[in-house]
Amino acid sequence: MTRRGEQIETAMKHLRHCDPRMREVMRRVGPVTMKLRRDRFATLVHSIVGQQVSGKAAKAILGRVKALVAPGKLSADSLSRFTLDELRSAGLSRQKASYILDLCDKTESGAVRLDRLGRLTDEAVIDELTQIKGVGRWTAEMLLIFSLGRLDVLPCDDLGIRNGIKQLHDLDDMPNRADCIRLAQPWRPYASIASWYCWRSLDLK
Q: CA 34 to CA 200: how far, in whole Å?
């Protein structure tokens, strides 16, 4: 078993032991199938494209952006060759196109060093990434979970997480940030894995 696999196993044992409600969700959802996206630049592009649009729309736009750079891959070098209007032709809003160009500019200039993120603390990663226009705390947290594989991230501003916690605890009202932090305390230090189960729990019938 890989080190990552061992970490997931340890996290699942902890969550089953510390939270009976989560244990039932885990039984119904099954094992963690989260796959890490190692390309940090592409992960950020995906997140920017997906802001405030449906998953279907984001997939279509992303496909057109990838077609622009084909046969190359999404990178600062490949995307910075396009003007804002050329990026907009792929279906991006003016704002999102400007965000992607700012991502290119900051990574190419070294203002943001994606290659060093693995050596930073979670909060330092968030501070580094939020220098980029259009990248807020939520986007940085998604990269922490799905690219860097950090185990103890709780994206309290994510509607899916809040809905998952509301459903898990059978709450009448949507929990706020403070409620989420309090209710998730037993999950520490494996809040990322619990968050993944919260998202998956919303698909259960």
A: 11
